[in-house]
């Protein structure tokens, strides 16, 4: 039986959970929202495991997987902000950072060419901290635990890692590329140097 479709199917199911999470939070059903959020986390782990196990890592999956994470997290951040559990400035920084990355990717591919998206270590840390913050807030509002000091600390950790990852992406795609010549530029420079050396040698021989 062909199971190669399973990883992407699980990723799509995670995207489908985002509207359910929004509806649960709209009605302040925090226990249900926590269950949906945890289920989404399980599908995230499962699709990554199956993709590697079945050796079906695809370009589509590489695009859908981070997109599903962002859709779910942004949905949670917006709703929790509207409900007063997350500061507006934090939600704004998270959304703006993601828009910056998407806009930078589109500009880079249209002006320079295709680029393979690879999450940086600080970006991965930012995602983990965001997930942790959402899970803690949902668990606290559902009455599972009460860690207000930890949540406050996580809010500032999300801000710091969000700003750091945004600046890092700007450096990688903008400033660093301006400082580092591309492969064609290097090749052209090498050809020019070789031609100059050859002409100099010919002049000396003559």
Topology of helices and strands:
Layout: H1 6-26, H2 30-53, H3 59-82, H4 88-111, H5 121-141, H6 148-179, H7 183-205
Helix pairs in contact: 1-2, 1-3, 2-5, 3-4, 4-6, 5-6
Question: What does this protein structure show overall?
Answer:
By secondary structure, this protein is an all-alpha fold. Helix content is 82%, strand content 0%. The chain has 7 helices and no strands. The longest helix has 32 residues, at 148-179. It is globular, with a radius of gyration of 23 Å. The model is unreliable at 181-190 (pLDDT under 50).
Portion of residues in beta strands equals under 5%
Helix content: over 70%
Q: Give the rounded overall mean pLDDT.
A: 80
Radius of gyration: 23 Å
Low-confidence regions: 181-190
Structural class: mainly alpha
Number of helices: 7
Number of beta-strand segments? 0
Please trace the helix and strand order, writing H or E for each element. Answer: HHHHHHH
How far is the N terminus from the C terminus?
74 Å
Shape: globular
Oligomer class: single chain
Question: Major sheet: size, sense and barrel closure?
Answer: none
Annotation keywords:
single chain, 206 residues, mainly alpha, 7 helices, globular
What can be said about this structure in brief?
82% of the residues lie in helices and 0% in strands. The protein is an all-alpha fold and 206 residues long.
